[in-house]
Amino acid sequence: MNWQLLPQFATTGLLAGGTLALTALGLVLIFKSTYIFNFAQGQLLLLGALFTWWFTVEVGLPLWLSIILALLLSALIGFGIERFALRPMTGQPLLSIVLMTLGLSQLLHGLALLFFGGAQRNFPQIFSAANPYKIATPFLRDGTPIIIILKQNLVWSFVVAILGVLVISAFFRYTNAGLAMRGASEDHELAQSIGLRIHRIFGVSWALAGMVATMGGVLLATSSGLDLSLSVVVLAAFPVVLLGGLESIPGAIIGGLLIGLTQGLVSASTVPLVRNMSEIMPYVVLLVVLLIRPEGLFGQKRIERI
Fold it and tell me: What is the pTM of this model?
């Protein structure tokens, strides 16, 4: 372990974990309200980033307005997915619906390639790269404090991601719409019997997931650039969701931070074999946790009595 660089890698990993948490939140939103694991979330993330780029670069709109329009367009796509792809499958086996989301992921990826092409794009800069933040630590190297250098886009992406997670968490806890979505996820037939409009709730949840995916896509594109491989980032969010618990919004936060921290610590290793394992460490951590606690750190253990 390179102990001198450990604070740098650990802090960078934690900050990257915030964006992972926001990406995982979209998966939690869908599962929490519809009990469906959405395999198309990565493509929604990609489309949201592409819409923002198109409005800014091709149309020439201000970046803040482009983000708002991309959020609205992503919400509309979410509504459309629920209305035209998933609502006709009401009453079908759960596996069929999950496979539908898998098919949607391929369809959306193909549409992104058709309309935007597969070229690498430079995403508009939101944060300055010239003046990174510097933090002095109590650790010493050759008698001088070790300085942690943090890029502005990484710090503010972390702040925006955590704020987004907290706002969605408050929405589920304190608003009537959020409580209705939680109730619908427990028992669809019972929710309908007390007057809840299930399909409207499902549409709202998909719209919110599309907006969350757009924010995640914009934050990721500011640091890694924009191409079709951006949708693959959601693969790292799957372990975050399963680690924290499929229905737990706080679990998405903790899971994202743990995964980011783990990747940062592994990257600080001086052993090349260990250092190259940073990409698969989310799944290693996931396997260890699931062996001890199959429902995840904050997941609900369900017991069915016959």
Answer: 0.86
